[in-house]
Amino acid sequence: MSTRNFGYRVSPRGGQRGARYVLGGSTKLPLGVPVVTTGADDGLGRAVVELATGAQAPPANGQGGILDYEEIVYSGVDPNLTTYSDMDTAPVGAAVQVVSGDTVKVVFKNTTPTEDASFLIRQGYPVGRTMVAGAGATPTIAVGDYLTPGVGDDEDGYWAETADPSEAWLVVTSINPETGEVEARMTFRERG
After folding, report:
1. Would 153 be classed as within a structural domain?
2. How would DSSP label each residue in 179-191?
3. What local confidence, expressed as pLDDT, does residue 87 receive?
């Protein structure tokens, strides 16, 4: 699912969009963040995933990737004011998808409340979000740089640059300083 901060340039196919995962922890997470399994099971056969933070090697097949979630029920929201982009987080305890695959290409967009207060027909987004640290008007990341899990919050970013290829979850393929968009391709394969 695409949001104002995350989307696909080359969509996952088949087993690249892994199912049978559930979001653990105590905080809802934005779509497009790095997640890893905790080793726990929710009792229904779904692996529990949590936010991955700090530079680390990509997970083994089926043990992590990029968080995705599809909102099906729009209960409690005004359909005249709400777009698909408003549904940009996965709730704790929800069945989620974990995307991996070296053909998948994603786009992240850093936003701030002042410059991006509207998107499509929605006005007044309450918060900004840094998806990739170092992306912006004067980027400190470049095409060919590797991305690994970052600090893991809206202010400091969910993804960060690493010089260590063994920590590379993604490789940057394009940067647009004007829009704050970073395109990147995953570096590890889907579950087999």
Report:
1. yes
2. TTEEEEEE-SPPP
3. 73
